[in-house]
Amino acid sequence: MKFLPETSSFLFHLLLLTELLVRSSSLPIRSSSHCGFFGSMIHQVESLMNLSRKIHQLRTEELEHFEDAKITLDSLPDLYHTAGHLRSLKVNESLTQMYGYTQSFKLHIDWLKVAKENVSLPFQTEEGASSHLLQLSNLIGKCLHPQNKEALPSVAPNLPVVSNAFDALVYSVEISDRLKVFCGWSKRVLRYFHKHS
Ligand SMILES: *[C@@H]1O[C@H](CO)[C@@H](O)[C@H](O)[C@H]1NC(C)=O
Ligand SMILES: *[C@@H]1O[C@H](CO)[C@@H](O)[C@H](O)[C@H]1NC(C)=O
Ligand SMILES: *[C@@H]1O[C@H](CO)[C@@H](O)[C@H](O)[C@H]1NC(C)=O
User: What Pfam family does this protein match (any one) (predicted)?
Assistant: First the structure.
């Protein structure tokens, strides 16, 4: 474009820039930071937190008998490394993570419900928790960009058959502990987004 005088080159660039701005502003904006469901999500997490304490009704001195049990669920979400600094949180990344954890906990809770049913232990708490996890998952799903939802791995964990009440209780203790950690993390993250959205 050497033959163009300075001014038309300038105008040309201005035109390009305007075009670019118009295009980007007409893109559908579905920014997760404007998600209107953080309050409802927090409510679901609080209900879950309450239920997570009831998944096993063991007292501290009884819990000691379960600490040596060497059976663990490798597929349970492990959040000990997730709890980063709140300042560096990105809504889409944290919600994608939370969505994945929610689905995973639901799979484990549904499995625990069947396990308890099989060995004649009460399973109402698991039913309640499962329903709250489903509602939480649906709410997060509404705020997630479809792109981030697709990125989720959909591997079903290979969960063992539970043949006695003792094993069912060991798994209950483990799931309850992990669920508490998940609820604590989720509540902090959601409150932060709720405040900053
Ligand atoms: C959780 O339990 C606390 C104390 O028992 C109660 O005050 C609160 O309303 C419960 N929250 C939900 C959402 O169920
Ligand atoms: C979240 O959004 C940022 C900026 O919009 C992007 O760079 C990043 O890849 C996204 N993360 C995920 C997990 O989609
Ligand atoms: C519950 O019992 C059914 C039928 O015996 C069995 O197929 C299933 O694997 C058991 N579930 C668990 C979690 O142990």
Answer: IL11
Residue 83 is assigned to a structural domain of this protein? no
Give the model confidence (pLDDT) of 175-193 as tens digits. 999 999 999 999 999 999 9
Averaging pLDDT over each range in 13-17, 92-96, 108-112, which range is the top one?
A: 108-112
Q: Which atom of ligand 2 is nearest to the CA of 90?
A: 1
Q: Is the residue at 177 inside a domain? A: yes
Could you list the residue range(s) of the whole structural domain that residue 92 is in? 88-196
How many angstroms does the Cα of residue 176 sit away from the middle of ligand 3? 21
Q: How many alpha carbons fall within 13 Å on the CB side of residue 184?
A: 13
Query: 58-74: per-residue pLDDT in tens?
Result: 888 888 877 777 678 88
Does residue 151 fall inside a structural domain?
A: yes
Distance (angstroms) between ligand 3 centre and the Cα of 115 equals 6
Residue 19 within any structural domain of the chain:
no
Residues 6+ apart with CB under 8 A from 122: 116
CA distance 183 to 145: 23
Q: For tokens 């118009």, name the residue.
A: 22
Which of 71, 112, 118, 158 has most ligand 3 atoms within 8 Å of its beta carbon, as the pocket-test mutant?
118
Separation of CA 105 and ligand 2 centre (Å): 24
- Check residue 90 and give its pLDDT: 82
**Alpha-carbon gap, residue 197 to 194, rounded angstroms:** 5
